[in-house]
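Contributing: when you submit paired examples, paste them exactly as shown. First protein:
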Amino acid sequence: MNSAEFLKEIHEYVEEEYRSFEEYQNIAFEILCEFDRICRQNSIQYYLAYGTLLGAVRDHGQIPWDYDIDVQISIDDRARMLNVLKNKLGKDFYYSYLDNTPKYPAYCIRIGKKGHHFNALHVDIFFLIGCPEGAKEQEAFLKRLNIYCGKRIKKYSLYWFSNPENKVDRIIDKLLGVKYFFISKKKLDKEEKELISKYPYADAKYCCSLGAEKRAYKTEAFKEASQVEINGKSFFIPIGYEDVLERIYGDWGKYLPVSKRFDEFYSMLKTVRQRDHSSID
């Protein structure tokens, strides 16, 4: 084999891997379409979020090297959203959350497609909650939020995810597992309730997602919705999406070097393959 033959082989391999990745993207998009359907039919306002929002407005679709889909709704709509998911979700889909999945390892709702694990392929529904106004107060609140979310994830993540191959990492994981084992679900639920109620979303000038958040947004960015088209279908985005994206990504119109985009694509492909090891029916 010469270098030209090897290069051709590499190209064919990468193309085959990317076609496999696109299949995962298509399933995630199918889940998003189902989510959009039930929200529109039940008058629940949502917004595309994070990389999904970035791809919608910058790339006019899904980011080509990302399959994950994120959306946001008001925390005030959480109970109604859960009721709709229980009663109106299409037969080919399911949701996972604290109310129906023992040892649930996340702080957002996940909608999946039957035949695929919720930790592999899903739409993540994040909740917008109120934040304080002052910069120092915001920093302290977001730090507390991150600590809470870290405890929620680390308490149950080892139950769902395979241990790392590295022996040292396995030992560290076991030690962390012992530490978080003694934090009760009741205590975590109480901590979440305190975070949500401290700055009521409906009255707050700033907000953030109930998650491992790094910044606060102006609530007025979410007071109204605009729409954007992806693959011939319309989805909701916040009217102040430019400010939201700037707070998350800075110069959000720029692209990372192709090496980093490739690394992100390939890392995501390996992750979704590893996690999609069992089905939930």
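Second protein:
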Amino acid sequence: MKPDYFKEAFNKISDEKRKKILDAAIMEFSERGFESANVNNIAQKAGISVGSVYKYFNNKEDLFLTIIHFGVEMLKRVLQEIMQSNEDLESRIEKIIRAIQSHSRGNAPLTRLYNEMATENRSGLVWKIVSDMENATAGLYTTFIKDAQKAGTVRADINANLFAFYLDNLFILLQFSYACEYYKERMKIFVGEDVLDKDELVVEQLMKFIKGALFMK
């Protein structure tokens, strides 16, 4: 991991110990939010002393930013693998949707944390997070929409930057709908109680929605 927000000592511990600390922090912050999260609870869940936490991080904010950075890097790896393939944009978008379904369920606390941070009232902290997260996707989506426009497969009359923003908003909401209780219930109200068991239907219908907006008839 790149030591943007943690001390070098954190890189020197075992992978297993590092994972325990990250998992404990993700769970605490996702359940309680930044302000109410307790470093003592994180230390206890990770099986380390509070002193060890501050041996690895200067403060609670740096620990919070570390787990956000960890999540962003995980997401970037998934997106880059999909977007660097030789498949067309339509196939890549479908793969992203399927990856979101899998990733959101497999990393539900981390996804809930993204939802939780939207309510944070500390503007400086939120900006650090937002800039890190959004830079991971904004340029990527915009570039591929523009490339598809040049290739003649995507409508030329759309603004690539805005449509990248719209696309990302759809993906974010989909993530929350598989991991956050409020959004799960919201999706059930619109689609039905069994919607979370109908992944193929969600993929099929969302692709129709996106293709209708993006692609040439």
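If you have annotations for the second protein, write them as plain sentences, like these:
The chain has one domain: 8-214.
The CA atoms of residues 143 and 160 lie 8 Å apart.
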